[in-house]
Here is the input.
Amino acid sequence: MEPAKKESVEVICPRCRYTQIVTLPMDDLPRCPQCKTRMSISELLDEGKSY
Ligand SMILES: [Zn+2]
Here is the structure.
C-alpha cells in the first residue's frame, strides 16, 4: 500500500460517544458539536476491514 498524505480517521467524543470522520493531517482535532469536548481519535479506518 502506498503511503497517503491524507488519511481518514474516526474521532470520538469521550463523553457522549459522538463519532465523526475527519481527514488528517489537520491542525487540531474537532470538538464535539454536542458537548464541546475535544474529541480523540478512535481508530484508523482500514479499508476492507469491517467490524
Ligand atoms: Zn460529546
